[in-house]
Amino acid sequence: MKREIIITNDGSASIHLPEWNESYHSKHGAIQEAKHVFIKNGLDLFQNEEAIAIMEIGLGTGLNAFITLLEANKRQQHIHYTGIEAYPVSLDEIEQLNYAMQLEEPEMQHLFLKMHQSQWEKPFIASDYFSITKRKQFFEEITLENQFDLIYFDAFGFRVQPELWSEIIFKKMFAALKNKGILVTYACRTSIKNAMKDSGFEVEKLPGAPGKREMLRGKKNIL
Ligand SMILES: C[S@@+](CC[C@H](N)C(=O)[O-])C[C@H]1O[C@@H](n2cnc3c(N)ncnc32)[C@H](O)[C@@H]1O
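^ thats the input. predicted complex w/ S-adenosylmethionine below
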């Protein structure tokens, strides 16, 4: 499918799919959305943990992984990151993304590129605090259990891939989380909330990233 690099309203880049009229991030601001949904309402809940494991559903441009890497270094918190992606973005496209500059960490650009150049299915140790395993896999094939503290659920929208916002997938997410684990997503549609609830999550609605009204957070809370 055709992909175009675009600049979102906060100045950070994203990728747009013209055939679907869908983007990898919010057009209101890719970095702004990543920080609000995944860092503020996800990672920040684990400030007191020395080490955590995160899985991202849809590694895409690697923006969420990169921001998490910067946070891990800043917080001196050990983060083991697993990024699932079936359709990797090409290195040529990755080189056009301005995240290191926009995040005012230009010297980290080389690490952003290295992360993308690293081998699939093998852990890449990016820093003293951050390692990432990229898995080239369909979400539908995930069978991991009790492994993650936090899931960044960042699939394309319900409008274009409704099958990924279903009970079948959320049950896999629930199984992949450790007890007390958290799933965060930018979406807030009622049918998604219900699919999460039916999969076992305790679900709450939170204020969305700028330009979006609400988002969802689910907790695995088994006795
Ligand atoms: C919204 S984008 C992810 C954006 C990403 N988190 C980022 O920061 O750039 C959704 C991603 O899911 C991937 N994808 C779509 N369907 C998939 C599937 N069934 N299995 C695995 N990956 C899939 C796409 O290739 C795309 O990279």
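The CA atoms of residues 193 and 203 lie 7 Å apart.
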